[in-house]
Design brief:
- The chain has 451 residues and is of the alpha+beta class.
- It has three domains: 255 residues, Ribonuclease H-like superfamily/Ribonuclease H (Nucleotidyltransferase, domain 5, 2-Layer Sandwich), CATH 3.30.420.10; 59 residues, no CATH class; 84 residues.
- It has 17 helices and eight strands.
- Helix 1 packs across helix 8 and helix 10 runs antiparallel to helix 11.
- The longest helix has 32 residues.
- The radius of gyration is 29 Å and the shape is elongated.
- The N and C termini lie far apart (90 Å).
């Protein structure tokens, strides 16, 4: 077990078992003293006294306009007329079980074009009910939550804390978790989908001297046990930037896909991922528009200066000195690059769902005409469409024969696929029988016509 993992587990355990259920008057005074020191260090204030005390910090408001009408037209986004509340938590652990607490909750919302924030910090664990009440006051029942992995972590954790406090979690209308959207649309260009990576790769934001996630529980524990304030200041700053990045990401998504810039100027891989998001909602025409825009972008792959990250031969550049592993095996690659053939496959499948079978077959034929590994599979898809949708049995047999010729050529250079060979041989035999049966049925009719 690595030292980082062991330290994280120890910090989580110590934070979970720390407190007495009924703090003494002396303990409450100590809590207030620590809360006042923390409020002074972060430029915040202490709201309430004794067990009702919560440290609140309101960072500087920033101008961050988001076109809500344009955002609402994108897949999975909230309606234009509902308030949005960005939410991010810092916790005593990475689980959502009863032993994990959210000691810092960052909230953000829009007032016109200005983005306001409020951060609520728990000065001691017995003060949690007071902080839960303040969180509830910031979330209108008509609001949509905006989080990053909030459906899987932040919100379930808070729901657990509300249940343990014997009170219902704040009601809200919807929940926009941006992590699935980022994975679907942008993951192919990034080494991972962490929010910090999104900031660097998409938003052009670089954090300096930021605290690592595994360090956060231990820093809060140091504050509880010894009143050490300075390390916790960096955690507050980390949370502030996380919440602000949620707002920046929404604005960036609007600018990329819903603003005045046409889709034809967007990156092909992003458009292909966006098409999948549209298709999941059944908005097939919008999905097809994205794929049409993606396929219209012609890339000069032969250029030595080509910096297109979406090409499969483009390695990920981590920066710094190369490691021994990178020297031995080469640098890591981006995840699932949207190659031209892959975009065409997505387009062909979408055309089939739209009932445009001839157009789908034409796209598969374009893929099959290439020399890539998808060529035989493309001709099989052409055969399927011609047989079952276009009612063109001779054309289906001809497409299957093309697939067989491609397989034979690949077999000659040592590329074997026994499963494909068996399936294709069975398809050719079945199509041959159907063609022969049709010809046999047509002969008596033809002969009868001459009598």
């Amino acid at each position: 077990m690595s030292s980082v993992t062991l330290e994280r587990r120890l910090a989580n355990y110590r934070a979970a078992v720390r407190l007495d259920p009924v703090p003494t008057v002396a303990a409450q005074r100590q809590t207030m003293a620590g809360a006042l020191r923390l409020a002074e260090a972060i430029g915040g204030e202490v709201v309430g006294e004794a067990l009702e005390a919560v440290v609140r910090c309101e960072p500087m408001t920033v101008v961050l306009p988001v076109d809500r009408e344009a955002l609402a037209r994108l897949p999975g986004q909230p309606p234009a007329d509902v308030p949005l509340v960005c939410l991010d938590t810092e916790t005593t652990g990475l689980a959502t079980a009863a032993g994990t607490m959210a000691f810092l909750v960052g909230l953000g919302w829009w007032e016109g074009d200005r983005f306001r924030q409020s951060q609520l910090i728990l000065p001691d664990q017995p003060n949690e009910p007071a902080m839960l009440a303040m969180i509830e006051a910031h979330i209108p029942p008509s609001a949509w939550l905006v989080t990053y992995n909030g459906r899987g972590f932040d919100w379930p954790l808070l729901v657990t804390r509300y249940r343990m406090a014997r009170r219902p979690a704040p009601a809200h209308t919807g929940h926009l978790d941006l992590l699935p959207f980022v994975r679907r649309v942008f993951r192919h260009r990034m080494v991972d989908a962490r929010l910090r990576t999104v900031e660097t790769e998409l938003l052009g934001v670089e954090r300096h001297e930021d605290v690592e996630g595994w360090q956060i529980p231990g820093r809060y524990l140091d504050f509880l046990r010894a009143g050490v304030v300075e390390p916790l200041v960096e955690v507050v700053r980390h949370n502030r930037e996380d919440v602000r990045s949620l707002a920046r990401l929404l604005a960036d998504v609007v600018a990329r896909f819903a603003g005045p810039t046409p889709l034809a100027e967007a990156d092909p891989g992003d458009l292909a991922g966006l098409a999948r998001a549209y298709a999941r909602e059944g908005r097939l025409d919008a999905a097809l528009a994205c794929l049409d825009a993606a396929t219209s972008r012609r890339r000069d792959r032969a250029s030595a200066d080509d910096d297109d990250w979406w090409l499969p031969q483009r390695p990920v550049d981590y920066g710094g000195r190369p490691t021994r592993l990178a020297a031995a095996f080469g640098p890591p690659r981006v995840d699932s690059p949207w190659t031209e053939d892959r975009v065409l496959v997505e387009r062909a499948r979408l055309l089939r769902r739209l009932g445009r079978f001839a157009d789908a077959a034409a796209v598969w034929e374009a893929i099959g005409a290439g020399a890539g590994p998808l060529s035989p599979h493309a001709w099989i898809e052409v055969a399927k469409l011609r047989e079952h949708r276009l009612r063109d049995l001779p054309g289906a047999f001809a497409a299957a024969e093309r697939a067989w010729r491609v397989v034979e050529r690949r077999r000659q250079v040592g590329r074997f696929d026994p499963a494909l060979d068996e399936a294709l041989a069975g398809r050719l035999a079945r199509l041959g029988r159907r063609l022969e049966a049709r010809r046999a049925a047509e002969r008596p009719a033809a002969a009868g016509g001459f009598r």
